Amino acid sequence: MDASLKVNRDEVVAGLGGEEAVRGMDHDARADALEEFLSGRLDAIVAAGQRGKEYATVAELADKVDTRGYRRGIGKLFMHDRNVQNPDADKPGKTVRRLAPMPAKPTLIDFFKLRFPPAAHLLQSARLARKNGLSEEIVLACLVHDIGQYLCFTDHGYWGAQIVEPYVSERVAFAIKHHQALRFYPDPSVGYGYPEGYLLMFGTDYVPPPHVQAAYSYARNHKWYMDARMVTTNDLYAFDPSVVVEIEEFTDVVGRHFKQPKEGLGNDNTAVSHMWRTMANPDAPL
Length: 286
Ligand SMILES: [Fe+2]
Ligand SMILES: [Fe+2]
Fold this sequence. Notes:
By secondary structure, the protein is mostly helical. It is 48% helix and 0% strand. It has one domain. Helix 7 (120-131) packs antiparallel against helix 8, helix 9 packs antiparallel against helix 10 and helix 10 (170-182) packs across helix 12. The radius of gyration is 20 Å and the shape is globular. The structure holds fe (ii) ion (2 copies). One fe (ii) ion (FE2) binds next to loops.
């Protein structure tokens, strides 16, 4: 694990929000911010080490690219079911599922029932947000925060925010979009640390690229920061497989805060209708 504990200047500066953010800090603020940034990642590395886990570096992960028959960014609807934490996920011979037909005028609930299952992560995030007493808008944001992943894992927060933008409040779309960047940055004030899963997915020495640093700085100083942050604090990897949450638990929230188009998602001629059609028909050859 030694290599993963090495700290380089670029990584630290990136972790603090970039050169400009660091220049604006006094000495004490820099020291606090450094500690805050590192503590999340170090906690995750130490916890992994205690369980005997060794995670790869960025370079080691890059070396695996041509050992797979797919790219890691491909959306869930276009691949066999997989789980990045499942060591068998890269084995050949897996097949995709046959999908049930969609109704003529699909609703968000129809997508949850027919295209997103099991969607346990989304449903449990939403339940947790509700249990934590968050607003109905944040519960909805948590419910759909990763739906971009059905199309594309890469930049999924941006895809996800765009897919729902015509149907939700600006605030909900903001929270979904910016959870993407905030996931990389600890916020001890709300008990959020660097995710251990990111050590696995990105490598122990990963440095978020400049656009992620910029998005973090922007969101960190935005009046809706806490909305986006709440999506990350309710965004759990370690959900309980014995708990089954049904979408019906959220029909009230969806009904009040998701403007379901009467023509059906995909048929309403918005700038994102094709995205819903693509999710409805991922077997279409063109
Ligand atoms: Fe996410
Ligand atoms: Fe998530």
